[in-house]
Amino acid sequence: MDIKSLISQLTLEEKAGLCSGADFWHTKAVERLGIPASMVSDGPHGLRKQDEQVDHLGVNDSIKAVCFPAASATAASFDREMLCRMGEAIGDSCQHEKLSVVLGPAVNIKRSPLCGRNFEYFSEDPYLAGQMAAALIHGIQSRNVGTSIKHFAVNSQEHRRMSSSADVDERTLREIYFPAFETAVKQEQPWTVMCSYNRINGVFASENPWLLTEVLRGEWGFEGYVMSDWGAVSDRVAGVKAGLDLEMPASGGFNDRKIVEAVRSGKLDEAVVDQAVERILNIVFRFVEHAKPETPWDKEAQHLLAAEVAADCMVLLKNEDGVLPLSREDEIAFIGEFAEKPRFQGGGSSHINCFKTTSALEAAKGLKIRYARGYSVADDCATDEMIREAVEAARSAKVAVVFAGLPDVYESEGYDRTHMRMPDCQNRLIEAVAAANPNTVVVLYNGSPVEMPWIGSVKAVLEAYLGGQAVGLATVRVLFGEVNPSGKLPESFPKKLADNPSYLFYGGEGDTAEYREGIFVGYRYYDRKETELLFPFGHGLSYTSFEFSDLRLSRDRITDQESLTATVRVTNTGKCAGKTVVQLYVGDCESSVFRPVRELKGFDKVFLEPGESKDVSFTLDKRSFAYWNTKIHDWHVESGEFRIEIGHSSRDIACCAAVQVDSTAEIPCRYDMNSIFMDLMRDPRANTVLKPLLDGIREMFMPSDEEQSEAAQEAISNEMSLAMVKYMPLRSILSFAGDKADPGLIDKILKALNE
Ligand code: BGC
């Protein structure tokens, strides 16, 4: 399709019109030129194709579809291949339904456990979020269906989401809030990007040229179109200039007319509008040219895939005395309404109208299960009668499994949680059941961390997150050992909300949300602070055991332009087959900037039969060692030693090795009379210049031994004097040298240093 020639035949009004939606879910058509409309749809863990009664908050029904596990769950799989398969299935259903773009994945960082949309987001860790997003995008786009990675950027709270400004420093943006987008864009070229509602440092994402053009297109090479989140446009003309191509859904023509007026009055270059139209039409036609409506959509097969994915995601948090897996021969109590009606997805725009669901009770048909409802989700209560029945069921069983978690109203798009507690009635129920049966297991259906006041009274906890429509089937498979759990926590579970680094300022004051904890988000903070956690990032047990050993590095010294291979041996030392996740963390042993103790820079999921061993290798490059340097506005590796750690979690490191990395970059530095000696002496170049002068300088303001009283000599040791000198600025030569001062000396030194 010759899109440029099409654009040359469009009127200005038509072009402006193409830059906003025809309705809630369609781009506009221009029939006289054969430009078709194309349909987009939420996502991201299935289709939410709405035909008639449209809305974007999941209020009205959409077509019957398959609900896969939400991102909070799929991130726990640490399984790229699985995410890719899920993406392929979603892509196939889009082809079948003629949907050109899935609105997702959503990759915002879980800064606080309170964000209402955490269930839809992957992780507190940008590397993990980026890898998972890239895998899902790869799968969906392999079917010639687009994705819209969202919400770009820093949409880590729902509170005042359409007006609030996320005020974040440059380094934190680059190290924490951008990389998931950056990785996905550089590796997978999502067809579209959705900008977020919020402002970033005062400027709306939808009209932020630095964000949408300089960084996204200029630095990362994004080639698709940017669309607004639904209703995220404030100043449309500023948006077009900034690189916001498509406004969604539309403004009833109001903003289109503004674009026309701006062009006519010379405030907006028509070429900029042409460019936006070109980007949109490229994608519209890319889909049209690869449309395959004959693609079958086998929902039953996808239901089974959803079960497989869900089982791969479940995280076994605790398993004392090997109470799990359960035996099919034993009498088991299933307690709690979620056993019958599981919570498996969150509320809002990602809400999917499932063609069917499988509860744990249904999936366990034929087994010796006694069920007690335990609590009512709708009434948020557990009556005495319910508790009594639950206790009775628990007493009669070998093992009591309580199905608990968060009801819909507790977490949703549109608002944040105000606390991290589960409903009181469920906590009470768990305590009562645990008191009646020492073998109590808790299964959790929730989209974000909860406090577990009963953790000491129960034997096992299985975190199933929001596992999609087949979650019951997956839960039963894991509980009874048909699937060996292999999920790992994609976020830290603090003991209490107040432990979270954003606790003091989360949500912000009015429309200002300051991200004051900076780069210290999640385990980056907890590990530095040595905070005791309920469960750490990366944690997850298995029915077998794994050993990591024999960590080898390809080199012991590299430059930041070279790569390093780390290889580790993984052995299944237990009695059954299973998968585990090998996690690789990197830590800078000594740094002049604040850095986390360790950061995830690689992971791999491996399957091993009992007794089997495999070597797993990781390639590390400059980015694995770098931090964002705000002087050069670029990634920088400080020369020195780095720790390479292989762990079962961020708190369970099994092997460690060290590598020396040498920087090839020079950080430009100009000294002046306020530069202090410590900085000068650290710089090898400055050190050489200063060396011959240093003795003289010391003499100037340190009296000679003969001149000093004995007492003074004792009071100020050489070491102390050096320690004091290091914070002095160059200009202090003059202040302290008295009549020995040489006024020209500073100039001479600076000239030599800055040459
Ligand atoms: C959400 C997006 C969603 C859009 C369309 C917005 O409210 O923030 O994630 O894709 O609605 O439903």
Notes on the protein architecture:
With 755 residues, this protein is of the alpha/beta class. Helices cover 32% and strands 19% of the residues. It is built from 24 helices and 27 strands. Strands 9-14-13-12-10-11 form a six-stranded mixed beta sheet, with helices on one face. Strand 2, helix 5 (126-141) and strand 3 form a beta-alpha-beta unit. Helix 3 packs across helix 12, helix 4 (80-97) crosses helix 5 (126-141) and helix 12 (299-313) packs across helix 16 (471-479). The mean pLDDT is 94.
Any key phrases for this structure?
755 residues, alpha/beta, 19% strand, binds beta-D-glucopyranose
Q: Please, what is the average pLDDT? A: 94
Secondary structure class reads alpha/beta
> Beta-sheet strand percentage?
15-25%
Strand order of the largest sheet: 9-14-13-12-10-11
Rg is 30 Å
- Poorly predicted tracts of residues: none
Summed up, the helix count is: 24
Biggest sheet overview? 6 strands, mixed
Oligomer: single chain
What is the strand tally?
27
Ligand catalogue: beta-D-glucopyranose
> What spatial form do the alpha-carbon principal axes imply?
globular
Helicity level, as a percent range?
25-40%
Distance between the termini: 57 Å
